[in-house]
Design brief:
Blueprint lengths: L6 H6 L14 H4 L3 E5 L6 E3 L4 E4 L4 E4 H8 L4 E4 L3 H7 L1 E4 L3 E3 L4 E5 L4 E3 L2 E4 L4 E5 L9 E3 L4 E4 L5 E4 L2 E2 L1 E3 L2 H10 L4 E4 L3 E2 L17 E3 L4 E3 L2 E3 L10 E4 L4 E3 L2 E9 L3 E2 L2 E4 L2 E3 L2 E11 L9 E5 L2 E4 L2 E3 L2 E2 L2 E8 L5 E6 L2 E5 L4 E3 L2 E2 L3 E7 L5 E6 L2 E5 L2 E3 L3 E2 L3 E7 L11 E3 L2 E5 L2 E3 L2 E2 L3 E2 L5 E3 L2 E5 L8 E3 L2 E2 L3 E3 L1 E3 L2 E4 L4 E2 L2 E2 L3 E3 L6 E3 L2 E4 L11 E2 L1 E4 L21 E4 L1
Parallel strand pairs: 1-4, 1-6, 3-5, 5-8, 6-9, 7-10, 8-11, 9-12, 10-13, 11-14, 16-17, 17-19, 18-20, 19-23, 20-24, 21-24, 22-26, 23-27, 24-28, 25-29, 26-30, 27-31, 28-32, 28-33, 29-34, 30-35, 31-36, 32-37, 33-38, 34-39, 35-40, 36-41, 37-42, 38-43, 39-44, 40-45, 41-46, 42-47, 43-48, 44-49, ...
Antiparallel strand pairs: 2-3, 14-15
């Protein structure tokens, strides 16, 4: 799982792997007590004649050169110690490069987590075994900014928590193995450059219910162009229930299709952890794509439609969606920097982010015929959860053209810095900083375009959220474009807010339009919320909501 890169690096794109370094996400390294494999002298650890290395005190160090010398002649098992000491030591951290060319096996056996911050290379005929949560819980295998595991011979052994993995060398080889065993366990043995190997459809078309571990190795220049249309387009067409993708990195990819489209997965019903997409992801749908049917578009930088879980993952891909409804039959577009459509109560995104620009263009011949949802992280969040410091930093831009509407109608959209529409979803400890531009008939929010109670379950909420980007739309608010009976607590907005072109625009420092019934009773849905009177350009302290003067629970601050 790749938890990498500072915010400065994100914005400057000086590196590609990411570290969401918050107190939550950096806990493995911040815990301090660990068996560290580094360039420092060996200390507080002993290795016996059987090749087992065990700490004698917490904060043990095994020198990397000492370890490589041991591996030259015998297999080595590094563990975090017995019982009480293991609980204190907890983790194994690789903080220096390790390589060996013998037939030895390296075992990393941790009470909790194993973190690989530098390259580990099995260049011989041995193998690697990794064990997490050996006595503990909540531990993970993770990869730092320079971390990876490479195995030169795919016939070597790789065990993760006792499960043998089949090593593969390329996407094509992975696809062949998965076709034969859709529920198998596979791992990428080394980085792979896919330049010059274009795909006309998803490289892995089989519904995958097994586990694929990328080991921090990058697949570069993957190109997928589905010209036929109507197919799920991504590296994996579909990850089914029980399937899992860990630590998969796609760099400088180009993915083009109709719908659904994602960089890594078109439809995810399983787990995606520690994975990265960089490059471009594009979906184009017209009313000719599916004859006699209203066009529908789903596109996301990492995942098109998510029905499962995503954690510690990100996309910096440029995401572009184009929906054309010339017949005026209606249509729907879901476009997100990370996920287009986060679908259902099991759909959860945690500790993940998106950083690329998002652009959605819709053309129709009928006013209001299309429904357009676009967000820096998620286009449409229906009953799903967005948690644990997830964020979006990319710009969100909608362009609508209604070529038979004249001056009285247009194309509506819900655009948000984080989420376009939040339909009874839960968003906690999340933020957005990208500029949001909705259409002249659109609803725009620095965090959420429309916070909606469509199915009237009373199960959605926003808590401890922040928006700092500029916002422009017909209905516009620093945090929310519109809110309909969804509780919003301890949230703040500070971006510049501006309205569209029409007299019926509704613009507020915090929320553009409070849709809850019978204002000001609607104020019960806002608790300890605020916007910045100076930076927002909304200096009137009564204009927290555009349509409800002095809406309770919303305060203007300097």
């Amino acid at each position: 799982m790749n938890h990498r890169k500072s915010l400065d690096q994100i914005l400057g794109m000086t590196g590609r792997r990411t570290l969401l370094c918050t107190a939550l996400l950096c806990m493995v390294n911040a815990a301090g007590a660990a068996v560290m494999i580094s360039t420092k002298p060996t200390n507080n650890i002993t290795c016996n004649a059987a090749g087992t290395c065990t700490p004698t005190k917490k904060n043990a160090v095994l020198n990397a050169t000492d370890l490589m010398n041991l591996l030259a002649t015998s297999s080595i098992d590094i563990n975090t110690g017995p019982a009480v000491l293991a609980a204190e030591t907890s983790n194994i951290v690789i903080d220096a490069p390790i390589t060996w060319s013998s037939a030895s096996t390296l075992t990393l056996d941790a009470y909790q987590s194993v973190t690989v911050n530098h390259p580990v290379a099995d260049a011989g005929s041995g193998g690697i075994s990794i064990i997490t949560n050996d006595g503990g819980s909540g531990g993970i295998l993770s990869f730092g900014a320079k971390g990876s595991i490479t195995i030169s011979d795919t016939a070597d052994s790789l065990l993760i928590n006792g499960e043998p993995y089949v090593l593969v060398a390329s996407p094509a080889e992975l696809a062949r193995f998965i076709a034969d065993d859709p529920s198998g366990h596979f791992a990428l043995a080394a980085p792979y450059d896919a330049a010059g190997e274009p795909y006309a459809s998803a490289p892995v078309p089989t519904v995958f219910t097994g586990t694929f571990e990328g080991l921090g190795n990058r697949i570069a220049h993957l190109a997928i162009h589905d010209k036929l249309g109507g197919n799920a387009t991504a590296f994996f067409a579909q990850v089914g229930v029980g399937g899992a993708l860990h630590d998969v990195e796609l760099m400088e990819v180009m993915v083009t299709g109709t719908s659904p489209v994602g960089g890594l997965v078109a439809v995810n019903e399983g787990q995606v952890t520690g994975s990265i997409v960089d490059g471009s992801v594009t979906a184009t749908v017209t009313d000719n794509t599916v004859p006699s049917s209203a066009p529908s578009l789903i596109v996301g930088g990492l995942v098109g439609e998510n029905d499962g879980t995503i954690s510690y993952s990100n996309s910096t891909a440029t995401v572009t969606g184009t929906l054309t409804d010339k017949k005026g039959e209606g249509g729907t577009a879901y476009a997100g920097g990370l996920v287009g459509y986060n679908n259902g109560s099991a759909a959860t995104i945690s500790a993940s982010w998106a950083g690329g620009p998002l652009d959605l263009t819709t053309t129709t011949s009928s006013p209001g015929a299309t429904l357009d949802y676009l967000g820096g992280l998620v286009g449409y969040n229906e009953l799903g959860s967005i948690l644990s410091y997830s964020f979006a930093v990319g710009s969100v831009t909608f362009t609508g053209d209604c070529f038979k509407c004249g001056s009285t109608g247009g194309v509506g959209d819900n655009a948000g810095g984080l989420v376009g529409t939040n339909d009874n979803g839960n968003i906690v400890n999340a933020s957005a900083s990208g500029a949001v531009v909705a259409g002249n008939f659109g609803s725009a929010g620095g965090l959420v375009g429309v916070n909606e109670n469509v199915i009237a379950c009373g199960c959605g909420s926003l808590d401890a959220t922040v928006a700092t980007g500029s916002v422009s739309g017909s209905v516009a608010g620093g945090l929310l474009g519109a809110n309909n009976e969804i509780p919003v607590t301890d949230s703040t907005a500070s971006g510049v807010v501006s309205g569209g072109l029409y007299s019926y625009d509704s613009v507020g420092g915090f929320v553009g339009y409070d849709e809850s019934p019978s204002p000001p009773q609607a104020s019960s849905f806002f608790i300890n919320d605020s916007w910045n009177l100076t930076t927002s350009g909304i200096s009137n302290p009564t204009m927290g909501a555009g349509n409800v003067p002095s809406d309770q629970g919303i305060t203007g601050i300097d």
